[in-house]
Automatic annotation (TrEMBL):
Coiled coil: none annotated. This is Oxidoreductase. Keywords: Iron, Iron-sulfur, Metal-binding. Residues 1-33 are annotated as: Disordered. It comes from Cyanobium usitatum str. Tous. The keyword DNA-binding does not apply. Residues 656-757 form the Molybdopterin dinucleotide-binding domain. NCBIfam families: Fdhalpha-like. The lineage of its organism: Bacteria, Bacillati, Cyanobacteriota, Cyanophyceae, Synechococcales. GO terms for molecular function: 4 iron, 4 sulfur cluster binding; formate dehydrogenase (NAD+) activity; molybdenum ion binding; molybdopterin cofactor binding. Residues 1-17 have a biased composition (Polar residues). It comes from the Bacteria. One of its GO terms (cellular component) is membrane. The keyword Cytoplasm does not apply. Gene3D superfamilies: 2.40.40.20, 3.40.50.740, Dimethylsulfoxide Reductase, domain 2.
Length: 762
């Protein structure tokens, strides 16, 4: 393994950072493109219905920072206006498409459908009738709902419950999520894989170890009292645009925003928000980063250990808080003292001066929120990264008080709600006991499959039936060939979805694949709830669909009918669960912190989940104290070209650490726009590389190259020079998944999407 470049990639000041090479047409994020996007959407044929939907009392379909619910379409949980973003417009616009023409499935073979990109799949339209693909057929064909239910019940009525499983995304409601886990656990299966296994599982596990709760401890109101934010491994301008409004306001009140990211994202330097239209149009946007650090990808534990060492050296540790409210600090302090600056800076690629300057700015803040996204969790040591951040928050006394705390930035709109409802292989003890009382018998002691374990089990022939509640299990996994082959060994797969995606054409079962159309959130004919990333439970009012002749079903209705066919009326009336009010009664009885949901239909009062936003330093651990722990430095390095078979004599090439990421016009695996003007990447067959790396190996901008990974390769990829740290590169997910082996964090099972060794060859 060769060491990575460790020279300082950027100065600590945002002014110096902004002098790094950046695309000429994107010196800030947001701005006119967002306003233009709103205008185009408004003037489109679906513009009127789009605005009606935006004002519907239902939560945003996009990220877990979305708005809506009882506060109204454009309001957040504090009642503030103008809190919708272009991501929300794109997501709603896609749901307002017409039905997929019948001739698409009748006339196009599966081989033809498999040639479609993610964007092309999404643009086929809405699913409006149930379909089946049987072994030996190269088409999806219509099927009746009665036959669907018969096939589904037969598939899950297995004598070996460990051979049935589910996978889910955060697109659905709390009620559907609760029914899904109750259905499987009553069968005796804990195989409840979820999209969170591929994103924030390290956050849930790491924070639970430190604080006893795996979610954000910061409410929106608390965030607005902060004078400092440390934002790590997040491209919030693209993935969580509404958060940018809070960062803009923090800077306006004199606060500090410290950004840590190997890629110098334009929107993290300056962002033009539609909530501030005059400034966006005339002023080029608002300043975001006060400091910008570009460490080596995967070295975040070293970065935070360096900050801790600088804080210790300067006397900035809050000893009174630490000794009163934390355990394990002695071993952590010993690690800080005995780890040399050379080891820290050599690991992260930042200088001691940069880390000391950042620590000083951090110490000068009165109340700091530590926020992060998948740039922290998508590593082989993702859980340790999260614990290193939590350690830093405790050592500085920035937890459990107004304006301070830890805040993982969740992705899909209800991904956190699924975890709360028990769709997890890490079921908490209080909920386990409550479910056992409800069902009248012990739950299976077998842990169950998380998402990566599910793929491995399927590949080994250990899974017979799989129910997918939304999501794209094929597209979201690393090593696309392995994922396709594994799904192909499952006897029956049931997909509940609103639109086609690549997984429906590549993730086909061995015998039968069902593709079933369901209502989306603003169409569902009954009330549902979702949970935001800041623990706020929103109530969605009933709606209607524009697909008048469609044969859609609500997820709650489908799951309750399946449960009835499998379980009858014991120990609960399963068919009665078609009434979401009854489901919410059961949620109130069995889900910790959710007692208020029992009254939400009559009161219409949305609420904060109890026991998560710590107002004082009494944590949900066994001792009531934060549990600090040593976080070892990762062993980072890149293989040489011989690892990939070597370069021919005279052949140009270089080995890089590849970061896979979403583009600005993308939501999870769904692509809305092919290009990414903010990064200067005109299409999805591109790789962003530091200009110094290109010059060093004799490659040139816009040259077409082969990118070879450990699991596969991509040809005809265009080289784009950009502001990524030397030694690193960036490509788009999920297309780049084919390159990577499924290397995962052993603590959480989350794949290392942000650190993929590749050989770029001419």
């Amino acid at each position: 393994m060769a060491p990575e470049q460790s020279g300082s990639p950027a100065a600590s000041q945002s002014k110096a950072s902004s002098e790094l090479p950046a695309p000429e047409d994107a010196d800030s994020g947001g701005g006119w493109p967002l306003i233009d996007g709103w205008a185009r959407a408004t003037l489109s044929p679906t513009g009127l219905r789009l605005w009606q939907t935006l004002n519907h009392k239902s939560a945003c379909l996009s990220c877990a920072w979305g708005t809506g619910g009882q506060s109204g379409g454009f309001r957040d949980e504090l009642g503030e206006r103008l809190q919708r973003c272009l991501k929300s417009v794109e997501a709603i616009g896609a749901e307002l498409q017409s039905a997929v023409p019948a001739e698409v499935f009748a006339g196009r073979s599966l081989a033809e459908l498999q040639q479609l990109s993610s964007a092309e799949c999404d643009q086929l339209g809405r699913l409006d009738r149930p379909l089946i693909q049987r072994a030996g057929s190269d088409h999806y064909q219509p099927i009746s709902w009665e036959e669907v239910q018969d096939i589904s019940a037969a598939a899950f009525a297995r004598p070996s419950p460990e051979r049935v499983a589910s996978y889910s995304s955060g697109r659905s409601s709390n009620e559907a999520a609760y029914l899904l886990q109750l259905l499987l656990r009553a069968l005796g299966s804990n195989n409840l894989a979820d999209c969170s296994d591929l994103c924030h599982a390290p956050s849930s596990i790491g924070l639970s170890r430190v604080f006893g709760s795996g979610t954000s401890m910061v409410s929106l109101e608390s965030l607005q009292q902060a004078d400092g934010v440390v934002l790590v491994g997040s491209n919030a301008p693209a993935n969580h645009p509404r958060l940018m409004n809070e960062l803009i306001r923090l800077r306006e009140r004199g606060g500090t925003v410290i950004v840590i990211n190997p890629v110098l994202e334009a929107g993290l330097l300056k962002f033009g928000s539609p909530a501030f239209p005059i400034r966006s149009m005339l002023g080029g946007g608002s300043e975001i980063a006060s400091l910008f650090l570009q460490p080596i990808p995967g070295s975040d534990t070293a970065v935070f250990l360096g900050l801790q060492k600088a804080l210790l050296d300067s006397g900035a540790i809050d000893w009174e808080f630490v000794k009163a409210h934390a355990d394990g600090w002695q071993a952590l302090i010993e690690q800080i003292e005995t780890t040399s600056w050379e080891a820290i800076t050599g690991c992260c690629g930042l200088s001691r001066e940069e880390l000391e300057h950042t620590a000083a700015r951090l110490a000068a803040c009165k109340a700091v929120v530590f926020a992060w996204a998948m740039g922290i969790t998508h590593h082989a040591n993702g859980t340790a990264n999260v614990q290193a951040i939590a350690n830093t928050a405790v050592l500085t006394g920035n937890v459990a008080r107004p304006g301070a705390g830890t805040m993982p930035i969740r992705g899909h709109s209800n991904v956190q709600g699924f975890g709360s409802m028990g769709v997890t292989v890490n079921l908490r003890e209080p909920m386990r006991l409550a479910l056992e009382q409800l069902l009248g018998r012990p739950l299976s002691p077998t842990r169950g499959y998380d998402t990566r374990a599910l793929i491995e089990a399927a590949a080994a022939g250990a899974v017979d039936s799989l129910l997918c509640l939304g999501g794209n299990l094929y597209g979201a996994n690393p090593d696309s060939r392995q994922a396709q082959a594994a799904l192909g060994r499952i006897d029956t797969i049931i997909y509940l979805a609103t639109k086609p995606n690549t997984g429906h054409f590549h993730g086909l079962a061995a015998r039968q694949t069902l593709l079933l159309p369901v209502f989306n959130r603003f169409e569902t004919p009954h009330r549902t709830t979702v949970e935001s990333g800041n623990n706020w439970v929103r109530l969605n009012e009933p709606g209607s669909t524009h697909l008048g002749s469609g044969q859609l079903i609500s997820e709650v209705e489908f799951l309750a009918e399946l449960a009835h066919r499998l379980h009858g009326t014991e120990p609960i009336d399963w068919r009665r669960l078609q009434d979401p009010v009854y489901v919410r009664e059961l949620i109130a009885r069995t889900v910790p912190g959710y007692a208020a949901i029992a009254e939400i239909d009559s009161s219409k009062k949305e609420f904060e989940v109890a026991g998560r936003v710590f107002q004082e330093p009494c944590f949900a651990t066994a001792t009531g104290r934060a549990q600090l722990a040593v976080t070892p430095l990762p062993e980072l390095g890149l293989p040489n070209a011989n690892h990939f078979g070597g370069l021919a004599a005279g052949e140009q090439g270089l080995v890089l650490n590849l970061i896979t990421a979403r583009s600005y016009g993308q939501h999870n695996t769904v692509v809305y726009k092919q290009g990414d003007s903010y990064r200067g990447m005109p299409h999805r067959q591109t790789i962003l590389v530091n200009p110094e790396d290109l010059a060093a190996c004799g490659l040139r901008a816009n040259q077409r190259v082969t990118v070879q990974g450990e699991a596969g390769q991509l040809d005809g990829i265009e080289l784009i020079p950009g502001s990524v740290r030397p030694g690193a590169a960036l490509m788009f997910y999920p297309e780049a998944n084919v390159l990577m082996r499924a290397v995962s964090d052993p603590e959480s099972g989350t794949p290392a999407f942000k650190r993929v060794p590749v050989l770029v060859r001419a």
